Amino acid sequence: MSTNDLHAAIAELDQQGLSARAVAAHLGCSPRTVHRARARRRAQGDTWTWTPPAPDEAAIERAAAGDPPPGLTWMERRAAIAQCDQWGLPARITAARVGCTRQTVYYARSRAAA
pTM score, two decimals? Predict the structure, then answer.
């Protein structure tokens, strides 16, 4: 596959909303190659930008309740942490419910406060 063909395939998969890691796995290249292809398109004037999918409210509720589904996105994880914070749960319990580390909870809280 030529470089131009690879960049075209990356652009096509980008339109489907796949992450750089998923695009790289699908095409058999590195995520850095995907990032470089995206940067090249931006430099050429392509104004299309990827928007993340909307978070799944059911997944957020399940994670906050202590039953996190597999494949929880970072946005859903942060929303579940915010929900636990509204309930006044400590970081240790929040981390156990959401399925992450306490450091992740602290980081999410600091990002929300910024």
Answer: 0.61
